[in-house]
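Deliverable D5.2: sample structural annotation.
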Amino acid sequence: MNASAVLDICVQALAAAAKLSAPVLITALVVGLAVSLVQSITQLQEVTLSFVPKAVAVAIALAVSGHWMIAEMVSFTQDLFARIPSLLGVA
């Protein structure tokens, strides 16, 4: 196992983490922006008004994209396990 193989695995792991976190983060970003826009227009600065909609939206995003996230993680893990013999130089 050389440095390029380790770097390749790290790059793939970071790409998978970014891909898996994108639906939740983008949902929280969009909802947070919309809520803050409404709060600034109405001048109503209540903490729960920004937290509750984001929490609900993130829960919905997880429910909608959860199956895809699990499938991606299983695929990534299976690919890593399939690469073990070549990384160790056995095959």
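Annotation notes: Residues 48 and 54 are 10 Å apart (CA to CA). The two ends are 12 Å apart (CA to CA).
The annotation will be released with the project's public dataset once the embargo ends.
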